[in-house]
Amino acid sequence: MSQTNPLLSMEHISKAFPGVVALTDAHLDVLPGEVHALVGQNGAGKSTLIKVLTGVERRDSGEILFDGRPVDFHSPQQAQNNGISTIYQEINLVPFRSVSENIFMGREPRRFGLLHWRKMHQDAEKLLQRFSIMIDVTQPLMTYNIATQQMVAIARAVSFQSKLVVMDEPTSSLNESEVATLFELIRQLKADGIAVIFVGHRLDELYAICDRVTIMRDGQTVATQFMHAIPKVELVAKMLGKALGEVRHSQTSLDASQHDIEEKVLLEAYDLRRGTRLQGASLDIHAGEIVGLAGLLGSGRSEVARAIFGADALEGGTVMLSGKERHFRSPADAIRAGIGFCSEDRKAEGIIPYLSVRENLTLAALPTLSRYGIVSREKQQQIVEQFIQRIGIKTSGPDQLVRELSGGNQQKVLLARWLCLNPKLLLLDEPTRGIDIGARAEIQSLIEEFAEKGLGVLMISSELEELTEGSDRIVVLRDGRSVATLEHAHISENAIMAAMAQDDDEESPVNKDRDEVV
């Protein structure tokens, strides 16, 4: 890429919130037609820098030049009108409106003063064809899965005549084919001279699509380099602020061979069925064991966890806990039985954004902290302070609003919510989704620590590397059914992929050591 004047130049950017300094003299330069990666641990300042750029937050100091002129946007709409579109990690569209309405919201085509519905639908269909998405654009957005909703959000952003598109974890809800489609679109944008800021944590994706990378740590910019010039291990080292040798010797946070798995079977789930999403899923978990749950998008992974937790009613199958058959009618029943569940969607089903860290962390424990309906503030504070320190939650204090924390620290709060109850079984659905490498390693180490103390863990993840590093066994799902169980000696990414792809009439070689067929 030939050097030219930056399309975007952010220099000496500083921003502080009450009790927290988010940015200190940060900088970011993006060239025209460049795909620029922005990486760093959660809390490093990436999101705040993007919010300052797009007018969500006001900077305390610094200068922003865009397309050769100083800018100071007061809202995302103003930034969008001036050529900067943003695709957020959490989908922020209107689920009850149609797909075409979501794409053209605020700029609907009109004819004789009335909405020109046919043109809007036709334009939406034409736009989505660039993504190889063939759906009924007249249907409400909520009728489609998360991956499709994410692609609609991307389509809306790129439909503006933008010079710069900011993508915040755009692949987090996409499968491999959808990621490939997105990358092809990014290459089209690049060929058209449109720049992309790609905020992400999956290193393979960054190296596949990005030209340069800016690394942030503790609210500061620590390096900007060409992607091809910085090895992955060096990139990780700069993100963590550690010596290169230290990273090389600690890349894997979990070592399944060290787990002291008890003989006692903690959970047995057989032939779970619910609609078309669960068609006979089965698994078991021993005390002290981490069982990974693998499968492609739509294979039924989250549905298994929700069924075990009592969040979704089963139409068939058996759930046994500590040898006793259980019929959980609600999550409250499962919680009382010693089961905790961290949902994949921490925004919609996890955190309560306008409550404090203290209130969010102790939410599930309130019955044990109350007497005659009055919560013991002293006991509550003891638990909160203990887990803030133990897990390393980066916060200005227990009374800070949880919505002000980074995604990784919000995830730690949710994890602490269940761990403070001393559960028997913990169900983790994408526990490190959208979380940087540093926070991910901390969470993985925490999971291992509690497993060694006898906690049973079901870990659902889309990342094969996370499963192979952190699981004692792996159950593979396909189309709502358990198709293979990989014992520790057989665990590998190739074995997982083979199980996902095998034909129904093929015999899986990885189940033969099991007494039962799953």
TrEMBL record:
Bilayer-crossing regions: none
Keywords in alphabetical order: ATP-binding, Cell membrane, Membrane, Nucleotide-binding, Repeat, Translocase, Transport
Source taxon at top rank: Bacteria
Membrane-topology descriptor: Peripheral membrane protein
MF (Gene Ontology): ATP binding; ATP hydrolysis activity
A Pfam family of this chain: ABC_tran
Any one cellular-component term (Gene Ontology): plasma membrane
All residue ranges annotated as the ABC transporter domain in the record: 8-243, 261-504
SUPFAM superfamilies in the cross-refs: P-loop containing nucleoside triphosphate hydrolases (SSF52540)
Subcellular localization: Cell membrane
Protein name (Swiss-Prot/TrEMBL): Sugar ABC transporter ATP-binding protein
Species this protein is from: Dictyobacter alpinus
